[in-house]
Design a protein that fits this description.
There is one protein chain. The chain is elongated, with a radius of gyration of 20 Å. It contains 7 helices and 15 strands. The strands form 4 sheets. The chain has a 5-stranded parallel β-sheet, sandwiched between helices. A 5-stranded antiparallel β-sheet has the order 10-9-8-12-11. It is α/β, with parallel strands linked by helices and about 230 residues long.
Length: about 230
């Protein structure tokens, strides 16, 4: 579990790290915790490195944590967000930025555990593995946005990276059995959670990818998506 925390108060930052480590030991969680005292440095790091959870202080000097997160959200970075603050002045903004929790200072272990629970830390989730030319990668199915075939390779796109895997689309589908994956074309498999728009001949995904819809049974493909979407309400 990769955690990034940003707070310009060094003592508060150290206390957060200490409490996270205590919770990690309590629940036998392997936590990789990176800390920053400046918002700009934190943003630069997150633009180049993935994180599962980001703890962001709202009142930073210089800068404002809300604005830093707003900038990161524009890059469609996929992380759970927890705001840290001594005031609830920015509660509305925190929800607009899809914050999982609003954690008031001084930090309390039970509240921190609740924040981690909201972020899904204690959820048991399966992983799937794929072999690239240089490494074996382990991915959560829900983090996969789209899989496409090009020149006998499958390109698996997540919010953080794209993985090039020598495999057929059918072998990838055997691993991705969740009901939210849909084959829109003979060489394109999408995660329907990331669909931003449905058009006559393609799906627009959250990362900007246009997934083509096969012409022969385009109505059936769009209908399959609509039926799945209705069940999500």
């Amino acid at each position: 579990m990769r955690i990034v925390a940003c707070d310009d108060d060094v003592s508060e930052l150290e206390e957060l790290k200490r409490q996270l480590q205590e919770i990690g030991r309590k629940y036998q969680l392997l936590l990789d915790i990176r800390t920053f005292t400046e918002g700009e440095q934190c943003c630069e790091y997150l633009c180049l490195n993935s994180a599962d959870i980001v703890f962001m202080d709202i009142y930073l000097k210089p800068g404002n944590g809300v604005e830093f997160v707003r900038r990161l959200r524009q890059h469609r970075l996929n992380f759970k967000l927890v705001f840290l603050t001594s005031s609830n002045d920015f509660a509305i903004e925190s929800y607009e930025l899809d914050a999982a929790y609003y954690l008031l200072k001084p930090l309390q272990p039970e509240r921190l555990e609740q924040a981690l629970k909201r972020c899904g830390v204690f959820d048991k989730e399966e992983y799937v593995t794929f072999d690239t030319a240089v490494e074996r990668v382990k991915l959560k199915p829900k983090d996969i946005i789209v899989v496409e075939v090009q020149d006998k390779y499958c390109y698996i796109h997540t919010a953080q990276r794209t993985y090039k895997v020598y495999s057929s689309i059918n072998k990838v589908r055997e691993k991705l059995t969740q009901d939210y994956f849909l084959l829109t074309y003979r060489s394109v498999l999408i995660n329907m959670h990331y669909v931003d728009g449905v058009y006559s001949n393609y799906f627009l995904l959250g990362n900007g990818f246009k997934a083509p819809i096969r012409v022969r049974d385009s109505a059936a493909v769009r209908n399959a998506y609509m039926q799945w979407a209705l069940l999500q309400d």
